[in-house]
Amino acid sequence: MSERWVKRCERILEQIKALETAKERDRLDLVHSMRLGLGALWGSLEGWMRWINSPRIMTQFTQEELKKMNSAIMDFVKSFIEFDIKMTKQGINKGFSESSERRPSRERAVPERFYI
Prior knowledge:
The structure is a single chain. The protein is an all-alpha fold. The chain folds into two domains: 1-52; 61-116, no CATH class. It is 70% helix and 0% strand. The protein contains four helices and no strands.
């Protein structure tokens, strides 16, 4: 599975690079690009959740490796959440309301605790 996952990710990166270098991108191209990127991110997050919820996998990493993973993930998460806040505020300024389609699941708001 891991080798297939790496190959899939490499193909996704190639698609993203091709979309980024395309000339004359219209609005639909930009939406398509965002869908591809967020879909890839979604798949990656699902894989990460399977990893971190598996003691068999996570016990294979050293404390130092886990620290590096944690640091990189937290930097990414903070940056993404800051971007999310900025775009949500921009959406609010454009008249989007609380009842708009974009609502987080209450069930996933607080992750389960898992200890190794």
